[in-house]
């Protein structure tokens, strides 16, 4: 794409533009500019940019990559948006990515991976990484209902989706840290939660960027079979981290997945090399 920024705009999007909001964007930059692509981290539902600021932003910058994290509207320090949709969340990602100095790598976690998948249809990312991806559909709902019925059913009727500490974190994560992170969780908009279950699949990505899928086979939110399906969608196999929880960026072993992501980027997957 020669580095240019392209956004595909549909006619109905002109007729019904997404409402502008104030967005929280956190960043950590390398001490020395090494020409590496910036990474834009997108949190999942209920999480904000703070989830990446805990460990991954600083570690990414220390390895020479500019690191940014956005809080989707209604999350973290971004403006409240109880009416938000998946389209609005994807719009947040595209707008922030388009304002970065170079073509970005989009990294989405949980339902944030679905947001990234939608954003890829509108922004020519250098590459993308889907971390413990929740890509939606009734299979996602069925898995969530089996593993967490009391926390899942309220979301069907407009309430918030509630995930337990046991689902989010591994046993290796200190109880004090797990409680602290869980206390910061918010909730996604009702329409966005419903679209997670019933929405259409994302459109094809602009420019066919390389996509890495990773997660844990012991994730209590995303089963291993879902990781395999997600990776197959992008013509690859998932990179697995046994023993970790759903929130890999906050887990006791948080360094392992982010180092794997950065190692993959150092190999420059845009040249067609295998991860």
UniProtKB/TrEMBL annotation:
Transmembrane segments: none annotated. It comes from the Bacteria. Keywords: Hydrolase. It holds the Pfam family Abhydrolase_6. The keyword Lipoprotein does not apply. Residues 39-252 form the AB hydrolase-1 domain. The keyword Hydrolase applies. InterPro entries: AB_hydrolase_1 (IPR000073), AB_hydrolase_fold (IPR029058). GO terms for molecular function: hydrolase activity. PANTHER family: ALPHA_BETA-HYDROLASES SUPERFAMILY PROTEIN, RE40534P-RELATED. This is Alpha/beta hydrolase. It comes from Micromonospora qiuiae.
